[in-house]
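User: Let's play a game. I give you a shape written as tokens, and you guess the letters that built it. Ready? Here's round one.
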């Protein structure tokens, strides 16, 4: 398993988009266009590659000199609950710290709140609905436990 940063010009980007669609959008009945964000090109894309296939990804969009938002974190169904998701998040955090970022925020689906809490993220603010499902605001200071 190889973790690597790519950008939208990379040949693996199409696979990343398809994984994001299949795992995060198709189950909600959303179309393929909904998976691509206007700020994809300005975001960091970390993918997990197994053989020729993208089997996981996590993205980060800077929202200031020291903070930004983690989004579109997903793992192929056959690889879920294998530790790959945590590995992706931790690798992203290490790269962000090296770039001077101090905080990561995210909009976590309520169903995966526990996953992020185990990685040190804390809920703040009020729950909300996004893409038709319950979400929570979460954040984590980098460089800490």
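Assistant: Ready! My guess for every position:
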């Amino acid at each position: 398993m190889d973790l690597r940063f790519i950008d939208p010009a990379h040949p693996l980007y199409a696979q990343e988009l398809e994984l994001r669609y299949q795992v995060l959008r198709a189950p909600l009945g959303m179309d393929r266009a909904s998976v691509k964000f206007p700020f994809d090109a300005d975001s960091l894309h970390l993918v997990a590659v197994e053989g020729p296939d993208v089997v996981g990804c996590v993205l980060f969009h800077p929202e200031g000199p020291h903070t930004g938002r983690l989004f579109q974190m997903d793992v192929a169904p056959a690889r879920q609950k294998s530790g790959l998701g945590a590995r992706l998040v931790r690798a992203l955090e290490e790269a962000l710290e090296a770039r001077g970022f101090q905080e990561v925020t995210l909009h976590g689906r309520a169903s995966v709140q526990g996953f992020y809490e185990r990685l040190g993220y804390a809920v703040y603010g009020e729950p909300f609905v996004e893409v038709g499902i319950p979400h929570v605001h979460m954040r984590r200071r980098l460089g800490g436990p």
